[in-house]
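Lecture 7 notes: from sequence to structure.

We start with a single chain of 326 residues. Read the sequence below before looking at the structure.
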Amino acid sequence: MSMYDSDQSSSRPATEKEWRLIEKLIMTSVGEQKKARRWGIFFKILTFVYLFALLVILLRPGLESGVSLKSGPHTALIDVQGVIAASEDASADLVVTGLRNAFEKSEARAVIIRINSPGGSPVQAGYIYDEIVRLRLEYPDKKVYAVIADIGASGGYYIAAAADEIYADKASLVGSIGVTASGFGFVETMDKLGVERRIFTAGEHKTFLDPFLPVNEEEKVFWQEVLDTTHKQFIEQVEKGRGDRLKKDNSLLYSGVVWSGEQALDIGLIDGLGSSSYVAREVVGVEEIVNYTPRPSKLDEIFSKLGASIGKGVAQTVMGNAVQLR
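Now the structure, written as tokens:
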């Protein structure tokens, strides 16, 4: 076969059968593309519907209030859960909002403050304490009961002391009437690493409690005075709330010691043993409990889980020297 014959063979026209095969392949390809586009549109619509429904659920009014729509007689409940701080669930803003809603609700026969907190900011605890006192005066017929769950220590007990009566479980941790401020010192570490601290200030004590500088004895004395003053304020509020029920002859009462619920009952820190349900049923006489605890926005919770709270955690670490009722 000559080269000419080979070229003719390779360039011969496609047969009808081959054209049909090509056409079939093209049509199949077009069909697959259409199907893929339809499925793509379907999944996009499905995603949009899901996100829209999620947004409606998150932004629906009243979701964060935690208040039941029931209007019959009931015992109101407000939770003080976790560290008491402005940026936490146990912030004064949230707790006070719940307290005001509970007191204003005529169907709420009494208010239970359920505490499960190791303490926290004396300022936030003080705000809550003062508001409980104010509301008790404004609504004299509505009793307030503090119920300590696992722990009601320091700032947690500070809040409880404002109630008419305090209850706890026999194994609850109660008390810790003291003040603390802690931090770290990295002076020797800096020296070993060969790192030179450079800081420029205007003000003799502007580097007060700087962890990279040696402790200044004058500042140490001053800081102790601050802690002692805060401790004195704490004691005054506890005595104002508990009155003659306290056995003040106990030398450890204001030492920062934490007691079991059973021990706390013996020295007058609490009035009885029982849970929130027990208090509502046996003390208040209205077993139905409605939770008035405000909740943070669902969007805030989501963003927090996605990592938005990292900056807050770093800030709390840096500010570790803040005074704490813990």
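The first helix runs from residue 3 to 10. Keep this in mind for problem set 3.
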